[in-house]
Amino acid sequence: MTDSVGKLEEEALKRKERLKNLKRKIEASNSGDNGQSTETIPKPVFRNYRPESEEIKECAIEEVKPTDVVSEISSQLEMMKAPIVIEEIDIANLAPRKPDWDLKRDVSGKLEKLERRTQKAIAELILDRLKSGQEDILQAVNVASATITSGKDDEE
Q1: What's the angle, vertex CA 133, arms to CA 143 and CA 136, rounded to 5?
Q2: Which of 13, 46, 119, 148 is the most exposed place for a label (fewest CB within 10 A)?
Q3: Neighbour count for residue 103 (Cβ, 10 Å)
């Protein structure tokens, strides 16, 4: 570990030394020869991206003329000046949602499961009562339907 730290420090010192030498060299070249540098600074190379081969020219997008751009912009500006007519307004999007809408959405799947289990439990209770012979069939069905409707009223 100490070898790697020592090596990194040595490389950093060498890099600093090279930068100092380069800086001195640039200052010396600028101060000598009346401010004109002896080294030539490379000029940036601008590339032309126009295709040279015929095959590529055919596939290339046609060049846009300045008049085309002006006419396109002016037509778009004219379209923006025209009033926007909304044909249909969706009232559901305009009305604010209740604060607990996301909770209801998240719990709806669980409630469906519970509803199925409740229906199954009610059916089992009715069968148990019928088997025991405590009540007649009509009364058991009426009790079950009353339980279901009262459960729906509670949900609303």
Answers
A1: 45
A2: 46
A3: 10
Each residue of 36-87: pLDDT tens digit?
545 577 777 777 766 677 766 666 556 656 667 778 888 888 888 877 766 6
**CB within 8 Å of 140: residues ≥ 6 apart:** 126, 129, 130
Compute the distance between CA of residue 16 and CA of residue 10 in angstroms, rounded to an integer.
10
Locate all alpha helices (DSSP H) within 32-132, ordered by sequence. 54-59, 66-81, 91-94, 101-132
Handedness of CA 135, 137, 143, 147 (dihedral sign): positive
Q: Nearest CA to 152 among 119, 120, 110, 128?
A: 119
Alpha-carbon distance of 36 to 134, in angstroms, equals 116
What's the whole-model pTM score?
A: 0.28
C-alpha distances (whole Å) from 2 to each of 15, 46, 82 are 20, 48, 74
Three-state DSSP at 11 gives helix
